[in-house]
Design brief:
heterodimer, A: 453 residues, alpha/beta, Rossmann fold, 7-stranded mixed β-sheet, 5-stranded mixed β-sheet, 19 helices, 48% helix, globular, B: 426 residues, 6-stranded parallel β-sheet, two-stranded antiparallel sheet, 16 helices, 10 strands, 39% helix, 9% strand
Chain lengths: 453, 426
């Protein structure tokens, strides 16, 4: 599967390079000639072209972005490949017009999110190759790097030390940093979360792990009363730079209590930030940003996403906690999603593109507060919104997001906002039933079709 | 005294210093609850012969011993005595002034007063350094004062003024001071105990991981008898003993949790016994006697400082007023109240100081007067302080105000001037 993916990638890449070089030559009005030349130039070795483009590109703001620009600009190429059958003129104009503003904006978005060090821009014009890893390894890498960087960062949770974490996110850390820095706690969520809060107030930067997010319901007292409120109640005297993280969401037949989505319960707590990671890249970035943040942050991971593989940069980077991520720019409809549903949406997007729709997919990433800028720009462009989430229907993130969009961007909407959420049902054990409680790609396709009538 | 602390972990016997209530009787009659007949005051004197010898001496015993004028076995020096007296008088007078101000409509909400329990606060907190931490409950005014928070700051906080120790944002139940390491002030019972455990963990972490060699900061967690039936209490006893955290758990057992008698709520009312179950010493002490509390505190705090682990200290004390100013306090037996009123810790200390020639009436009266003036000044300061302006509303919600997010215009919401004015809606 990966080979096929790689071949697909290379093919798209060829087209991308061709069009990219084409844009540079636009100003010289050697439109047709240049186009033909570069179309056939796609036969050159990919690496050389990539590096050449990276160095010469006027659009990318720094070479270290060229890697990320790949991620952001990659997706629209699927539209190119689909429409290649049509006249090239259409593709070119669409591609160019689409590419410039969105490409620049998407790159701007990511350049904000990337902690570009001064030397990385001055260093070699090519980006380093990066390294491939799984999502849980990315989390571990982020955590380890932060623990190396700041000796006050410590981890607390059940089985995080000797066992390495029930999802292996803290594997190897106890051997490296010792039993006190990677603390195996007894099974007392409320108390060890409170302990983390007390430690944060007195100068440490703890990362508290809930073995499953659902277990943090036991810690709700501490999270709501102390974590969120004490900075305010103390008149700003104590900061609580704690990170509370853990896997949640519906897994594979884990039963109702292990399949909970707590983002809806925590979203009302004032004083905290909530983020949800969905790819190895943003998992590492968000983990690092959360640890560095002075605010209490709750990082939601998903049980089924831990084995996602991706190539991430070697250099130090963070993902901005308050920003959303543009996954796929489009024109017809804005699809807002987060965590695992991103993948269901992208799967539906393939179908939709085949049917001729052009969805814009945004991974909102920041569940509290919402990135109203990215979302707003998208709404202003497409005028139709579909929210796809795994949260419960009642009082979930989608419900809040619907309210926020209606409040701020009502005039730009051509149709009521559609929100696809999980059903208000305790997740059943049976696989067939479990599948139906969560939003599936087919539902997303139907919803978009309905929305775009 | 040494017996309680030096005994091996599992066999640590609860050590108590006073009255018949401390002895191990089968479950029946350890405490003076209102449902029990009051013990005759004279019985404590009968204990003289049976009392184990040790440095802790009952106030009444010292008086009765009629030692020669040198007084070799005094527990405190004159300065210490005056310091203790002043602190207790400050606590008492402050709480009385609070009640007055409340009934005059200067403060609102729930106000929980500490009258009668001053010995516990003074006895423990006056042994701490500035860097040691104190965690309390909603009955925290006097803990704040003992720890060193100025009366002006506490009074303004109660009045809800911006010059209060928490800028008026905390109130009676949430006193915080980072300068004096007072980490709250918690409204839910038991909520502060894990936070105290965390502060103690920080101290241990600093010493062992960050290698700050002299870091021996101790944390005191104060809470009541009602809290001792709460899960957080037990979970933290376990963790503190497991990791030998430098913390002292101080139970202010005033026998009542609002209207719930401790005996009606607890299967085994002897709280100090629960310490050894977790592998730490459990000590019972007469919380109406500041000198006894101080002796026990010295040992417990010393243990924590040396890295020997936590201690559970149960102070049998009493609150002279109701649970809060809204509590009519009709449930408690007047005879019980009278019994404890007779054991007023301030009166007892005063008597001790005078009878041991540590201080004269005039000196003590001067202290009383000084405290009265201090409080008048505090009230005046609080009255004249400004109320928090609207611009303060959104100021401390986040340590990093970027947490309010990015607005529709692309800028961070905290850059919006409405945020600094406090009129933005979040």
């Amino acid at each position: 599967m990966s080979l096929k993916f790689f071949a697909h990638f290379l093919f798209i890449f060829q087209v991308y390079i061709s069009v990219f070089l084409l844009i540079i030559h636009l100003q010289f009005h050697f439109f047709e000639i240049a186009f033909l030349f570069y179309f056939f130039a796609g036969a050159k070795p990919m690496a050389a072209i990539f590096q050449g483009v990276g160095a010469a590109a006027t659009l990318s703001s720094s070479p270290s972005n060229s890697f990320d620009s790949n991620n952001s600009v990659f997706s629209p190429l699927t539209s190119f490949s689909v429409r290649r059958g049509a006249s090239f003129a259409v593709v070119r104009s669409d591609g160019i017009l689409n590419l410039n503003p969105k490409g620049r904006r998407a790159q701007q978005l990511i350049s904000n999110a990337v902690a570009t060090k001064a030397d990385s821009a001055a260093s070699s014009s090519s980006s380093k190759p990066g390294h491939e890893l799984l999502l849980f390894e990315a989390l571990q890498e982020g955590l380890e790097e932060e623990m190396d960087r700041d000796p006050r960062v410590c981890v607390m949770g059940e089985d995080v030390g000797h066992y390495g974490g029930s999802y292996k996110v803290t594997k190897g850390l106890a051997e490296k940093f010792g039993d006190l820095r990677v603390l195996d706690t007894p099974i007392a969520e409320n108390s060890f979360t409170g302990m983390g809060i007390g430690a944060a107030m007195t100068g440490l930067r703890p990362v508290v792990e809930g073995m499953n997010m659902g277990f943090l319901l036991l810690a709700f007292n501490q999270i709501s009363n102390n974590c969120g409120m004490l900075h305010y109640t103390s008149g700003g005297q104590f900061t609580i730079p704690i990170v509370i993280r853990g896997p949640g969401g519906v897994g594979r037949q884990l039963g109702a209590e292990h399949s909970q989505r707590l983002e809806s319960y925590f979203q009302s707590i004032p004083g905290i930030q909530m983020v949800a990671c969905s790819t190895p890249y943003n998992a590492k970035g968000l983990m690092k940003a959360a640890i560095r943040s002075e605010n209490p942050v709750i990082l939601f991971e998903h049980v089924l996403l831990y084995n996602l593989k991706e190539r991430i940069p070697d250099e130090d980077y963070i993902c901005n906690l308050e920003e959303a991520e543009m996954v796929r720019p489009g024109e017809h409809v804005t699809i807002l999603t987060y965590s695992r549903m991103r993948y269901h949406v992208m799967q539906a997007a393939k179908t939709l593109v085949n049917k001729g729709y052009d969805p814009e997919v945004i991974d909102i990433r920041s569940l509290k507060p919402f990135d109203l800028y990215t979302i707003g720009n998208s709404v202003k462009k497409t005028h139709r919104v579909l929210i796809v989430e795994e949260c419960m229907r009642t009082g979930g993130i989608g419900a809040s997001l619907t309210a926020a969009i209606t409040e701020n961007f009502n005039d730009y909407l051509d149709a009521p906002i559609m929100c696809l959420s999980s059903q208000d049902v305790p997740t059943p054990y049976a696989g067939t039933l479990e599948e139906v409680t969560v939003v599936q790609p087919a539902q997303i396709v139907t919803a978009v079709e309905q929305l775009c009538q | 005294m040494a017996t309680a602390f030096s005994a091996p972990k599992l066999a640590a016997q609860p050590f108590s210093t006073i009255s018949p209530s401390s002895q191990d009787r089968p479950l029946k009659i350890p405490f003076l609850g209102s449902t029990r007949k009051l013990r005759c005051l004279g019985s404590s004197r009968l204990n003289l012969s049976r009392r184990p010898s040790g440095p802790v001496v009952a106030v009444s015993d010292v008086v009765k011993a009629k030692k020669p004028t040198q007084n070799p076995s005094l527990l405190i020096t004159k300065d210490e005595g005056l310091e203790l007296y002043e602190d207790m008088v400050l606590g008492r007078a402050f709480e009385d002034m609070c009640a007055q101000m409340y009934y005059r409509g200067k403060m609102f909400g729930f106000v929980h007063l500490y009258n009668g329990q001053e010995a516990v606060s003074t006895g423990f907190i006056k042994l701490l350094k500035q860097q040691d931490s104190v965690v309390s409950t909603y009955r925290d005014h006097v803990h704040a004062l003992s720890k060193g928070v100025p009366s002006r700051a506490v009074m303004s906080e109660l009045f809800g003024k911006s010059t209060g120790c928490c800028r008026g944002q905390g109130g009676s139940m949430h006193m915080f001071s980072s300068e004096h390491n007072l980490i709250g002030g918690f409204a839910f019972i038991g909520e502060g105990i894990p936070v105290a455990t965390g502060a103690a963990f920080s101290s241990k972490y600093r010493r062992e991981v960050l290698k700050e060699a002299n870091c021996d900061h101790v944390t005191l967690a104060f809470f009541g008898d009602g809290t001792c039936n709460n899960g957080q209490f037990y979970e933290c006893l376990n963790m503190a003993a497991l990791w030998k955290l430098p913390i002292v758990f101080v139970v202010e057992n005033n026998l009542w949790a609002i209207g719930m008698s401790h005996l009606r709520a607890t299967s085994d009312p002897q709280i100090y016994k629960k310490g050894p179950a977790f592998g730490m010493p459990g000590v019972h002490v007469d919380g109406m006697d500041v000198l006894k509390v101080r002796e026990v505190a010295k040992e417990a705090i010393g243990r924590a400082r040396r890295g020997e682990g936590p201690t559970l200290v149960e102070c049998e004390t009493y609150r002279f007023r109701g649970h809060s100013l809204a509590d009519p306090d009709e449930l408690r037996d007047p005879a019980e109240k009278a019994h404890y009123a007779a054991r007023d810790p301030i009166t007892a200390l005063k008597k001790y100081l005078i009878e041991n020639n540590l201080a004269g009436e005039a000196e003590l009266k001067a202290i009383d007067k000084k405290i009265d003036e201090l409080l008048e000044d505090a009230v005046e300061f609080a009255e004249e302080s400004p109320l928090p302006p609207r611009s303060q509303l959104l100021e401390n919600v986040f340590a990093d105000p970027k947490g309010f997010g990015i607005g529709p215009d692309g800028r961070y919401r905290c850059e919006d001037p409405k945020f600094t004015e406090g009129t933005a809606h979040v």
